[in-house]
Amino acid sequence: MRKKWRSNQLKVNIYAWLLLLPSFIFLFLFTYLPIFQTLSLSFYRADLSIAEPIFTGLENFRLLMEDKVFWKVMTNNAIFALGTIPLSVGIGLIMALMVNRAIRGIGWVRTFFFYPVVIPMIAIANIWLFIYTPSYGLINQVLGFLQLPDINWLGSTSTVMIAMIIMVVWKEAGFFMIFYLAGLQNISKELSESAKIDGASSLMIFRKITFPLLMPTTLFVLIIAVTNSFKLVDHLVIMTQGGPNNASNLLLYYIYETAFSYWDQGYAATLTVVLLVMMLVFAVWQFFGLDRKIHYS
Amino acid sequence: MKRLVDLSMYILALLWVVPLAWLVVTAFQPKELATSLSPHFVFTLDNFRDAWEAAPFVTYYINTFIIVFGILAVQLVTATLAAYAFARLNFWGRDIIFILFLLQIMIPADILIFPNYNILRDLGILDTKLGIMIPYFATAFGIFLLRQTFKTIPFELDEAARLDGCNLLQIIWNVYVPLAKPTFIAFGLVSVSHHWSNFLWPLIVTNSVDNRPLTVGLSIFAKSFETGAQWGQVTAATFMVIFPLILAFFIFQKQFISSFMQSGIK
């Protein structure tokens, strides 16, 4: 009996491993292996001036600490995250509350809120480039019509970040609306109806019932929003190239520049390590803290 | 109060549709009128003709199609097999391996552009369509989604098929795949729209027109005009790139929205 169970167990293990193998090969090649290679390359000097990489220990990380652009980019990433996340999540929630009703034309409203999600970031950059263009752009024409001075949105260090944030909020709010809509539809109507009978105002119902019940959704949405704030850099290639004077540069774009414009491999690896560590810390934090309640129920 | 909510909702919706409306108007208007906000509107297809002649959009379209559906085809196979193992087989180290797989959701290939470029170079597949596709062949997200669905399928069906003499692959194909159809559709829509939009990775990997997808082609096309003089053409090209997506979105709107919804509630 036991022998049979054992051989069965062995069979199950072999089957399982065979089924996982195709996925595992690609995960190994393009997730695990690159992580290890990046880690090891970050201890080397490897740029165009030398033929073979030279081991330099922590030299790259020392350079990093002194690199003004690096700190500028990190600050920008923080500003970008703090600017886009609360706004897009907040507007997404408001949108969901608005369209979660049965009134005429609501399908169209929902569509208008959601369509930016399916448009590629690079196409969005093209569209918004023309919206922000000095004097002829849509916004500046409206400003001109109102007799207000022209603003060079993408050309000045003080407005370029705001311009990026507005564009990304426009793209992402509809995405978060969808998750909130799903969350809202899981909340039973009876709760809010009985509260209404007890004389609670709509605002009160939202604060005391709806919002707390949407907490798992909010946490989930925040996770996506944070990850996206590190991934979204496509628009920089077309709109600003990180400029002017690095005012709109973000970490992933800086990695792209370092690796494929300056061809400084060692330093690009070091920058990638920074990004990896941030993502990992965030992943561990959500897995052991936040995420328990939402993902695996 | 209710009126106020309605009104602000319509204003917000209008505000959200302005960029698309402006794109469409500019794309279909003669060049001379492109930068004016004036109300008169003259319809023309000249911009599309010019853009179509100025860049090899047919090649770009074909490339995007090959890449997007190539990725999806492989993903469906790898994800289905792995999802079954995680959902139904009790094997050694399952939980640890599952977490190891999920790592890809937190550290997606999108942020590993630099090391993955080196791996592609070592494999000798730089500037190929395969090179653009291969990092996405395994999908932790798809595995996760399908695993959740497979778990809800009654185990009795599995056993009944086994008694009928089905082997493991036949069980997956005959029992699990048909019952998980909505999840496959949801995953397919998310995957296709995601990879249709992908830009930075194909930009790095490709060097030649033969392998460039639409997004990269569009950026090169747009960058070749630094001045605002060619707005008509650039907006027409942008419209061509997003048109299939927008069309698909309007046709399959319900599925799209519910797919994205479903992919969120795990």
UniProtKB/TrEMBL annotation, chain A:
<feature type="transmembrane region" description="Helical">
    <location>
        <begin position="267"/>
        <end position="288"/>
    </location>
</feature>
<dbReference type="InterPro" id="IPR051393">
    <property type="entry name" value="ABC_transporter_permease"/>
</dbReference>
<dbReference type="Pfam" id="PF00528">
    <property type="entry name" value="BPD_transp_1"/>
</dbReference>
<protein>
    <submittedName>
        <fullName>Sugar ABC transporter permease</fullName>
    </submittedName>
</protein>
<keyword id="KW-1003">Cell membrane</keyword>
<keyword id="KW-1133">Transmembrane helix</keyword>
<keyword id="KW-0472">Membrane</keyword>
<keyword id="KW-0812">Transmembrane</keyword>
<comment type="similarity">
    <text>Belongs to the binding-protein-dependent transport system permease family.</text>
</comment>
<feature type="transmembrane region" description="Helical">
    <location>
        <begin position="78"/>
        <end position="100"/>
    </location>
</feature>
<dbReference type="InterPro" id="IPR000515">
    <property type="entry name" value="MetI-like"/>
</dbReference>
<feature type="transmembrane region" description="Helical">
    <location>
        <begin position="112"/>
        <end position="131"/>
    </location>
</feature>
<feature type="transmembrane region" description="Helical">
    <location>
        <begin position="12"/>
        <end position="35"/>
    </location>
</feature>
<feature type="transmembrane region" description="Helical">
    <location>
        <begin position="211"/>
        <end position="230"/>
    </location>
</feature>
<feature type="domain" description="ABC transmembrane type-1">
    <location>
        <begin position="74"/>
        <end position="284"/>
    </location>
</feature>
<keyword id="KW-0813">Transport</keyword>
From TrEMBL, chain B:
<protein>
    <submittedName>
        <fullName>Carbohydrate ABC transporter permease</fullName>
    </submittedName>
</protein>
<dbReference type="InterPro" id="IPR000515">
    <property type="entry name" value="MetI-like"/>
</dbReference>
<feature type="domain" description="ABC transmembrane type-1">
    <location>
        <begin position="61"/>
        <end position="252"/>
    </location>
</feature>
<keyword id="KW-1133">Transmembrane helix</keyword>
<feature type="transmembrane region" description="Helical">
    <location>
        <begin position="7"/>
        <end position="28"/>
    </location>
</feature>
<feature type="transmembrane region" description="Helical">
    <location>
        <begin position="171"/>
        <end position="192"/>
    </location>
</feature>
<feature type="transmembrane region" description="Helical">
    <location>
        <begin position="96"/>
        <end position="118"/>
    </location>
</feature>
<keyword id="KW-0812">Transmembrane</keyword>
<feature type="transmembrane region" description="Helical">
    <location>
        <begin position="130"/>
        <end position="150"/>
    </location>
</feature>
<feature type="transmembrane region" description="Helical">
    <location>
        <begin position="60"/>
        <end position="84"/>
    </location>
</feature>
<feature type="transmembrane region" description="Helical">
    <location>
        <begin position="231"/>
        <end position="252"/>
    </location>
</feature>
<keyword id="KW-0813">Transport</keyword>
<keyword id="KW-0472">Membrane</keyword>
<comment type="similarity">
    <text>Belongs to the binding-protein-dependent transport system permease family.</text>
</comment>
<keyword id="KW-1003">Cell membrane</keyword>
<dbReference type="Pfam" id="PF00528">
    <property type="entry name" value="BPD_transp_1"/>
</dbReference>
